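[step 3/7] fold_predict: job queued, chain A
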Amino acid sequence: MRVGFVGLGVMGRPMAAHLLAAGHELAVWARRPESAEEMAAQGVPVCASPAELAARSEVVISIVTTSSDVAALAFGPRGLAEGFAPGSVHVDMSTIAASTARELAARYAKQGVGWVDAPVSGGDRAATEATLAIMAGGDAATLERVRPLLACLGRTLVHVGDAGAGQVAKACNQMVMVSAIQACAEAMHLGRAHDVDLAALRTALLGGSANSRMLELMGGRMVARDFANGIQARLHHKDFGLILNEAAALGVP
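[step 4/7] structure written:
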């Protein structure tokens, strides 16, 4: 399949590499040219604009930072919408507002272009290992068209509902995940204040109803005091800004 890719950051680089390794005809566009150097070195065409990328692609996959980034990529000057032919599909794997996803889907529909919002969970390790959890929103038939591409990137793919539903699922994921990390941190802090062996405390908690994926993964790092950089805190702040804004708009703050 002719695939365009935008967003060659920590997550996007390995994702693009998986698509290339699977034999898809890949092309890329990068806002910062240096981000595309690794792909260019492998013979992947680097387009001069999103419109050029869309014109040569059946499907464009994007994973960028903010709602405004995705909107500008899609409908800004020389954006994807200018290059897409009817029947093309934009799969956005960024974490953005569900309302933005719905707006973009509606605008694309007017020109016969499909949309799937497919945010992911699992971080850069899962991106590298192609074991991402993918939460999809959009038309079922459109999702089936791009399923082979998403299968190159993730271990699970769940169709949550119409456009925007993938972003709703990702917001809920972030609420549960980050709250669990914070609870683990507070529990370990309390244990340390009592001078309890934290490894033993974690083992005890893992054996009971407090057991969780975050206690298993992040709790171990807390015990070892392994505070190596992971995802940037600003991205979690961005995600929770989306959650709070949309919850307030819906009357469920």
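[step 5/7] annotate
The beta strands are 2-6, 25-29, 59-62, 89-92, 114-117, 120-121, 132-138, 154-161.
The chain has a mean pLDDT of 96.
exit 0
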